[in-house]
C-alpha cells in the first residue's frame, strides 16, 4: 500500500448536498490546497475531511403563549486528536449543519495553529433569538444544553459564546450541565461571568490578539505602527479593542464602519470618545468627531492597515481591487471570500487570516479552562502577557512556514495546524 496517500471512499457525506456544500465546501478546498505540503502525513488527510461526530438535536420549548415550538440544534466535533473539542455556540436563524461543520473544522485549525491542547468543535441552533423573550431564551438554552449533554463536558468538549450568545447564556449552560451531572462543573464552558469562574482579560483577548499579530507582521514588512493609518469595520468587542490598542501604540484611526454607518477623520478619530458615543447611541452614526463615510468609500479609504471585524463575506471580488492598505487583519471569522483573497494576494496586500489573527479569544478561553480546573485565578497582567507570548510564537511559526514555501499566510497557517493535527493522529494510530 502506498503510505503517502490515503484512499478516499465517499468524499461528500450523504447528509450534505454535493451541489451546494456551503461553507463546508470552502473548508474542503482549503484542505486540498494544503495537502501537497503534508508529506507522509497526507496519508491521514481524509481524517480532516469528515467531522468525527455530528449530533443533530430537536429542541422543543414551551413559548410564553402556551404553544410548543421546535428548533433544530447541532453540536459537531470535527477533530479531537489533540484534546477535547472546543468552539462556540451560535444562535441564528440561518445556521446550517454545513456551516457548523465548517466552523468546527476552522476551530481545529485555529486551536492547532496557536498550539493549545484542543480539537475543534462548534454548535448552533436555527433560531432568531431576538424573537424570544428572556424566559424563552433561557428554556431554549437549557434544553439544548441538556440534549447535547451526551457529548460535552470539561474533558470532552467545551462550548463558548459565538454570534448572539454571551456570558448570560454561558451561565445557563454551565448551570444546566451541572444540575444534570450533580456537581458544579465550571470548566464545561468558557466565556462565563467572572463570578462563575470566568477569566480576567477574556473580553479584550481577541482584539489584543489582532493587535499583537498586526504588530509582528508590520515589523516584518517595514511598517512602523507610529503614525500608521488604520480603518476598522465593526466597532464591537473585537474591532473596538483592536482599534484602541493600535491608537495607544501611536496609530491613527481614520475610518470606522459599523452596521448603521461610517465615520472618517483624516487627522484621526478620538477612539475613547467614539467608544462612548457607541455605548450611548448603539452605533458610530452621528459621531461629531468625523465626517460621514459612505459604505463603498470605506474599503477604498487611504489606510495602511484594514481590519474587518464584523461579519463574514465582507471583502469580495467587487471591493477587494479597491483596497489601498498594505495589510488586512481578519478580526472577524471568514470576512474575505476566496476570490477576494486571490485579488489581495495579486495586489501585494498581506492578509493575516482569521485562523491565526483572531485566535486570541480561544487562547484566553484555554486559560479560563485551566484556571477552572485548578481553582486558582491569575492576574490580568499575567493573562495578557501569556496571551502575547502565545500569539507571537504562533505568528512567528506561521510566518516562517509562509516564507519557506512561498505561500499565503492562510495556507501557511493550515500547513502548521494540519501537520500538528495529523502528527497527533499518526502517533495515536488507528483504533482498533
Ligand atoms: N468576540 C470574540 O472573542 C471573537 C473571537 C473570534 C472571532 N470573532 C469574530 O469577530 C467578529 C466580531 O465579533 P464581536 O465579538 O466583536 O461582535 P460584536 O457584536 O461585539 O460587534 C460586531 C460589530 O460589527 C458591526 N456590524 C454588524 N453588522 C455589520 C454590517 N453589516 N456592516 C458593518 N458592520 C457591521 C456591529 O455594528 C458591531 O460594531 C465576528 O465575526 C466574530 O465571529 C469574535
UniProtKB/TrEMBL annotation:
<comment type="similarity">
    <text>Belongs to the Glu/Leu/Phe/Val dehydrogenases family.</text>
</comment>
<keyword id="KW-0520">NAD</keyword>
<dbReference type="GO" id="GO:0000166">
    <property type="term" value="F:nucleotide binding"/>
</dbReference>
<dbReference type="InterPro" id="IPR033922">
    <property type="entry name" value="NAD_bind_Glu_DH"/>
</dbReference>
<dbReference type="InterPro" id="IPR033524">
    <property type="entry name" value="Glu/Leu/Phe/Val_DH_AS"/>
</dbReference>
<feature type="binding site">
    <location>
        <position position="237"/>
    </location>
    <ligand>
        <name>NAD(+)</name>
    </ligand>
</feature>
<feature type="binding site">
    <location>
        <position position="365"/>
    </location>
    <ligand>
        <name>substrate</name>
    </ligand>
</feature>
<dbReference type="InterPro" id="IPR006095">
    <property type="entry name" value="Glu/Leu/Phe/Val/Trp_DH"/>
</dbReference>
<feature type="binding site">
    <location>
        <position position="86"/>
    </location>
    <ligand>
        <name>substrate</name>
    </ligand>
</feature>
<dbReference type="InterPro" id="IPR046346">
    <property type="entry name" value="Aminoacid_DH-like_N_sf"/>
</dbReference>
<feature type="active site" description="Proton donor">
    <location>
        <position position="122"/>
    </location>
</feature>
<feature type="domain" description="Glutamate/phenylalanine/leucine/valine/L-tryptophan dehydrogenase C-terminal">
    <location>
        <begin position="199"/>
        <end position="429"/>
    </location>
</feature>
<dbReference type="InterPro" id="IPR006096">
    <property type="entry name" value="Glu/Leu/Phe/Val/Trp_DH_C"/>
</dbReference>
<dbReference type="Pfam" id="PF00208">
    <property type="entry name" value="ELFV_dehydrog"/>
</dbReference>
<dbReference type="GO" id="GO:0006538">
    <property type="term" value="P:L-glutamate catabolic process"/>
</dbReference>
<feature type="site" description="Important for catalysis">
    <location>
        <position position="162"/>
    </location>
</feature>
<dbReference type="InterPro" id="IPR014362">
    <property type="entry name" value="Glu_DH"/>
</dbReference>
<dbReference type="Pfam" id="PF02812">
    <property type="entry name" value="ELFV_dehydrog_N"/>
</dbReference>
<protein>
    <recommendedName>
        <fullName>Glutamate dehydrogenase</fullName>
    </recommendedName>
</protein>
<dbReference type="InterPro" id="IPR006097">
    <property type="entry name" value="Glu/Leu/Phe/Val/Trp_DH_dimer"/>
</dbReference>
<feature type="binding site">
    <location>
        <position position="110"/>
    </location>
    <ligand>
        <name>substrate</name>
    </ligand>
</feature>
<keyword id="KW-0560">Oxidoreductase</keyword>
<dbReference type="InterPro" id="IPR036291">
    <property type="entry name" value="NAD(P)-bd_dom_sf"/>
</dbReference>
<feature type="binding site">
    <location>
        <position position="206"/>
    </location>
    <ligand>
        <name>NAD(+)</name>
    </ligand>
</feature>
<dbReference type="GO" id="GO:0004352">
    <property type="term" value="F:glutamate dehydrogenase (NAD+) activity"/>
</dbReference>
<keyword id="KW-0547">Nucleotide-binding</keyword>
